[in-house]
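We were asked to recover a plausible sequence for a given structure. The inputs and outputs are reproduced exactly as logged, with field labels preserved.

PROBLEM: sequence recovery
POSITIONS: 697
GIVEN STRUCTURE:
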């Protein structure tokens, strides 16, 4: 354990390494450029590049790559070696400022939603000096933004950085009004990551897991998660060895992996990092997802990041803990001891409340994927309805503002365990609410609707921009106010009156809430396809354009890409299911039918008065189910074929997949799962849910 401080960040070209390795003047220039938000001079970049290269080569690196996050939602890299021909015929290791600052990876096959066509394929990667370079698998990775020739964002990082600028600009206006003279405000994020770990041998026997990352078939095992014996349970030795190595690999890369524990479902786990600035948190979450998969593989395991790998078992999400911090380290969402008197905190809180209420659609869209559709609203994850939990104390304070009365605080009660030796401590003033999609948790908000496999880029682009917009309006009003304190009180009062419908402190999983939410006029965009088209609503285009986060063109492109992505995923799943049923399930059904026929004939041929009732009943049941399977398969194939007619219209196609194909897949699966319970395991072609969920020791 003593080596951990030395291990931590050892593969990162961190601030400390830069300070040590760069000439003092270059280091200062670089820090100034970052602080002043301007790009670096070429001569300075040359020096930084050379120092980076020397450091990387000492650590054994031979290649470098511009590491970027295209709209596929994962990361991309194209490796170049450092070698350059030397005049004497040998080679030298070289890396110039030009190579550091800018790359032209071509990369024309990434989704661009028509922002660039492949024949005019210029796409550029541009160094993001706010996220440190690192070495991974012998390659120096330089975090970059990816843009088209005209500067259009083709990735998740560019708009994220723009949104961070937007919220910085607006919040600084507010802070100046409060007489605070910090340099900047940044958003901070800690992304808790859920995942499943299963045995690789079992995984390799399932086409659905290999092609789709989730099971498309599978009857429930006799034991699921009902005993809650996995949640926070003792970690199994193989998983524990995997986690230990994972931590070390993450620490080397400077990822602050902090806690790991078993989650609710069997084979499900969670990793929580210590929070950092949003941009770095986003890069680190991508690295975490990549390493989860790689390290699992080295241990004969497979990490499933899909939102719903197993039907009937809890799926996986990501919790995006989000807050705002000044460059002096003040957390603007920290209520302090007396929140009722902390008007800056209350204003920021109100900015978030207004933002969430006005932009329920955008928050829902930012987590909309085919995989997440299986989770949201399924009594294991928040509903598809966006609401906020702020707890009783803050609700009480805001109510008092709305009614114009003084708030009387209730001191937090002492914890009474009934055991004298246990420590005596004050309880938190409110308990947690685990069912809320957007919960205030003491000094940050926790957005809990994210699916486990997505980039946290999109939700944070939305969060930063929508809060920037409400802060902008508050700042406009306060800058022009004659009586500042009265104006602050009025903004808080009005925000509560206008937006309190979004606050819900009760059980978000209950059916009653769905009805109440409807009565309150809250949106309920049940599926991805219901949600996505709203991305390009007039209100949203105006919002993102105003803050310079997306142009209308970029938004239309993104909307098309998201819709196409949905259709592609469902299409792959449907084709995989068809293949599994035709090639594996059907033959198993026929084989069992033959076995039963043979048994009946064999018994009858003895001429003895033996009953063939069991065999006959079984045969009739299997045969009827086989017919049903055949019919449902036909429906799915017809639905798949009909998709061809909708090509060319992204929305019509996605709607078709959602309405016809997904439904046909579910119907087919139901019959197959029933057959699985009736057919002997030696004949059934796939490992069962029991094998998948309980085989890692
Ligand atoms: P919990 O509230 O779930 O008990 P923690 O307080 O440890 O647990 O926080 C959970 C996650 O929230 C962690 O990833 C943590 O780093 C992150 N977090 C804590 N404070 C902040 C903050 N100010 N901004 C963003 N994320 C934060
Ligand atoms: Mg959490």
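RECOVERED SEQUENCE:
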């Amino acid at each position: 354990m003593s080596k951990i401080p030395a291990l931590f960040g050892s593969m990162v070209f961190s601030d400390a390494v830069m300070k040590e390795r760069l000439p003092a003047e270059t280091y200062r220039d670089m820090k100034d450029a970052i602080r002043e938000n301007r790009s670096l001079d070429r001569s300075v970049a040359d020096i930084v590049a050379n120092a980076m290269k020397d450091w990387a080569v000492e650590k054994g690196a031979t290649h470098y790559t511009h590491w970027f996050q295209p709209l596929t939602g994962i990361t991309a890299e194209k490796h170049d070696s450092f070698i350059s021909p030397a005049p004497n015929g040998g080679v030298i290791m070289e890396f110039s400022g030009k190579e550091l600052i800018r790359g032209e990876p071509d990369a024309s096959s990434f989704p661009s939603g028509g922002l660039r066509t492949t024949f005019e394929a210029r796409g550029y990667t541009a160094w993001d000096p706010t996220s440190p370079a690192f070495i991974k698998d012998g390659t120096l990775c330089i975090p970059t933004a990816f843009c088209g020739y005209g500067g259009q964002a083709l990735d998740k990082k560019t708009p994220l950085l723009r949104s961070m600028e937007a919220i910085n600009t607006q919040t600084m206006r507010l802070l100046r009004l409060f007489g605070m003279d910090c340099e900047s405000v940044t958003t901070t994020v800690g992304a808790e990551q859920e995942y499943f770990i299963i045995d690789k041998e079992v995984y390799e026997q399932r086409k659905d897991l290999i092609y789709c990352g989730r099971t498309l078939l599978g009857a429930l095992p006799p034991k699921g998660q009902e005993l809650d014996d996995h949640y926070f349970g003792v970690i199994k030795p193989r998983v524990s060895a995997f986690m230990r190595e994972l931590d070390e690999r993450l620490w080397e890369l400077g990822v602050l992996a902090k806690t790991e524990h078993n989650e609710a479902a069997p084979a499900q786990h969670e990793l929580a990092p210590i929070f950092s600035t949003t941009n770095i948190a986003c890069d680190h979450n991508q690295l975490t997802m990549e390493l989860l998969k790689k390290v699992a593989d080295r241990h004969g395991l497979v990490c499933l990041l899909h939102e719903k790998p197993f039907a009937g078992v809890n799926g996986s999400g990501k919790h995006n803990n989000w807050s705002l911090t000044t460059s002096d380290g003040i957390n603007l969402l920290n209520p302090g001891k007396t929140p009722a008197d902390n008007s800056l905190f209350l204003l920021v809180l109100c900015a978030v409340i207004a933002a969430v209420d006005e932009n329920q659609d955008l928050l829902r869209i930012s987590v909309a994927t085919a995989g997440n559709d299986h989770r949201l609203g399924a009594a294991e994850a928040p509903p598809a309805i966006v609401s906020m939990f702020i707890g009783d104390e803050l609700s009480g304070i805001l109510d008092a503002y709305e009614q114009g009365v003084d708030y009387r605080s209730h001191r937090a009660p002492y914890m009474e365990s009934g055991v004298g030796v246990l420590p005596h401590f004050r309880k938190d003033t409110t308990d947690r609410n685990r069912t809320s999609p957007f919960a205030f948790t003491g000094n940050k908000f926790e957005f809990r609707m994210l699916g486990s496999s997505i980039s946290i880029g999109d939700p944070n682009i939305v969060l930063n921009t929508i809060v920037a917009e409400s802060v902008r309006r508050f700042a406009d009003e306060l800058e022009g106010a004659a009586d500042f304190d009265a104006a602050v009180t009025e903004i808080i009062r009005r925000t509560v009156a206008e937006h309190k419908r979004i606050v819900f402190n009760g059980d978000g999983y209950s059916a009653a809430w769905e009805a109440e939410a409807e009565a309150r006029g809250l949106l309920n965009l049940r599926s991805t396809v219901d949600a996505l088209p709203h991305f390009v609503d007039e209100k949203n285009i105006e919002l993102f354009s105003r803050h310079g986060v997306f142009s209308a063109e970029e938004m239309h492109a993104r909307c098309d890409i998201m819709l196409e992505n949905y259709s592609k995923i469902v299409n792959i799943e449907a084709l995989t299911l068809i293949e599994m049923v035709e090639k594996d399930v059907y033959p198993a059904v026929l084989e069992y039918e033959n076995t039963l026929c043979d048994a009946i004939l064999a018994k009858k041929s003895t001429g003895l008065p033996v009953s063939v009732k069991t065999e006959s009943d079984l045969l009739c049941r299997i045969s009827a189910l086989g017919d049903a399977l055949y019919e449902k398969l036909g429906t799915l194939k017809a639905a798949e074929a009909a998709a061809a007619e909708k090509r060319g219209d992204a929305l019509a196609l996605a709607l078709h997949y959602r309405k016809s194909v997904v439904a046909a897949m579910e119907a087919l699966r139901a019959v197959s799962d029933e057959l699985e319970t009736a057919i002997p395991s030696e004949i059934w072609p796939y490992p069962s849910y029991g094998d998948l969920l309980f085989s890692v020791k």
